Amino acid sequence: MADEELLFLPLGGAGEIGMNLNLYGYGKPGKPTWMMVDLGITFGDGTHPGVDVIMPDPAYIEKHKEDLAGIVLTHAHEDHLGAVPYLWERFGCPIYATPFTVSIVQRKLAEVNLLDIVPIVEVSLNGTFQVGPFEIDLITLTHSIPEPNGMAIRTPLGTVLHTGDWKLDPDPVIGEPYDMPALRKLGDDGVLAIVCDSTNVFTKGTSGSEGDIFESMKQVVEGCEGRVVVTCFASNVARLDTISRVAKAVGRDVVLAGRSFWRMIDAAKENGYLQDAPTFLDEDYFGDIPKDKVLLICTGSQGEPRAALSRIAADEHPRIYLNENDTVIFSSRQIPGNEVSIGRLQNRLVRRGINIVTDKDEFVHVSGHPARDELLEMYQAVKPQISIPVHGEIRHLTEHAKLARSAQVKEAIVNENGGMIRIAPGPACVIEQVPSGRLALEGGRVVPLDGELVRGRARALWNGSATITMVIDKVGNVKGDPILTTHGLLEPDDCDFEDDILDAAEDAVERLSKKDLRKDDIVAEAVRMAVRRYCRATFNKNAVTTVHLVRV
Predict the structure, then answer these.
(1) 377/171 Cα distance (integer angstroms)
(2) CA angle at residue 40 from 35 to 46, to 5 degrees?
(3) Options 3.30.300.10, 3.60.15.10, 2.40.110.10, 3.40.50.300; CATH of 5-124+150-197+387-448
(4) Phi, psi of 430 (to 5 degrees)
């Protein structure tokens, strides 16, 4: 054992919120056996045009896939399992998860024809199982989705508690209450380190209970005269239950808009959840229900342009419409970075005379992540020697480390993606930095986020593009007039600029030597650079320039 070490390496979710990929290693230095915990995605924020899904680059562990014993999924949120369909083939190892999470991941794998290929091991709630050298005890916690699992990871060098996403909800609505006796027993037995959620470390007090929302939401909906829309995350199964019970209590039928809702509800019912919920109706029924008797639940709380609510706000949805004095309730938090898109969506609704209600107006949302008092209660129960904050931006991780030290934790390590921590033996510290990039889902392909495809599109978006088609003969004489096509660079009536660009292209050819005129690559590059220089000097734009050279 003296020659072995216990490692923790985040490749996603440390220094950011979302896109979780965590690795635990145990064994001899330089040749550990690895276990992956979660493999998630995040969603595009408009920074990279055309990119909707972003995931961590697993290149480091892909190189060591023969030493990867398995992937454990803590729960079924997209930022913890959404990358499995796109990246699993790079590893080929078993996946471990509890029943509800298995149902969700199976549906995702079926969409990419991997369902019968991926080995999935279903683990019971509070179950114990082995992944390579790691013995795992699951501990039931609470969150906004069924079956959020903390993981007690036992090794000969000590036990690590990996919390996943959690809160301490005394009335969780869906699923079992959190298992505080198990946490306390774990603490009494001795915990070497805790790898813990940092999302709400700046929030004082507690996050609030899902069970407390019902009465407040009911009062809000009772005060609405027209149609009511509630927008929330499709994965928030507890909220779906709460909203549906509110609708029943006030005499409204529940209509769902968004395919992701149906997937989540089917998986929930498959595992014994939502059994007493009122019937959910398809969006086709929306127009047949009187406006004071309908409550629509839809996706799009973050202002996503393709989600149902954005199309409804723009009056572009084929089956759902809203009128003046209808009401939209935002039953979700505002994810950092989405402020502009959410504000744009809400302004569009208000402009049409539609009422909006947010968590700043009424008690219509509670977070699924622990606030400061819950974090302190966790530390008091578990009593770890080492705190490793994750699931937060650098400011969250730093504040979490301060909080841990205030709770008498001996060591607290602030670490971002790519920092390999040796938890034991010896003082915990970052011993190596490994590559930790990002990948993008682009047209069904997984490509580097910083690769030419995505960067080239961004350049064209910000600088415009110009394509020159030029015909020359064997000795380099220009034949006929070149053709210019631009996007995002010229107005339709900018004929003078177009003529100047074409003149610059022809001048570039005329300045070449006879020898160079016989080489297509030299001619094309001379034209390209001439056009780019003109655009930079005239428009202050580095236009993406392409030359089609035809030799006759």
Answers:
(1) 17
(2) 150
(3) 3.60.15.10
(4) -80, 120
Q: Is the pLDDT of residue 458 over 80?
A: no
Q: Where are the domains of the chain?
A: 5-124+150-197+387-448, 210-357, 464-551
- The pLDDT tens digits for 60-75 are 999 999 999 999 999 9
CATH architecture of 210-357: 3-Layer(aba) Sandwich (3.40)
Tokens 């007090």 belong to 205
How would you class 86 by CB atoms within 10 Å of its CB: exposed for 0-12, middle for 13-18, buried for 19 or more?
A: buried
CB 139 within 8 A of CB 125: no
Over residues 63-108, the pLDDT tens digits come to 999 999 999 999 999 999 999 999 999 999 999 999 999 999 999 9
Sign of CA pseudo-dihedral 501, 504, 505, 506 = positive
pTM of the model: 0.89
With beta carbons less than 8 A apart as the criterion, state whether 309 and 240 touch: no
Phi, psi of 59 (to 5 degrees): -55, -40
**Tokens 């699923």 belong to which residue?**
175
Identity of residue 219: Q
Return the structure tokens found at 53.
């899904």
Plot region of 60 (φ>0 → left; ψ -120 to 50 → alpha; else → beta): alpha
CA distance 401 to 517: 65
Q: What is the pLDDT of residue 447?
A: 83
Please, what's the b/e burial string for 111-135 (b: 16 or more CB within 10 A of its CB; e: otherwise)?
eeebeeebebeebebeeeeebbbbe
- For residue 412 the two structure tokens come to 């607290």
Would you state the CATH architecture of domain 464-551?
Answer: Roll (3.10)
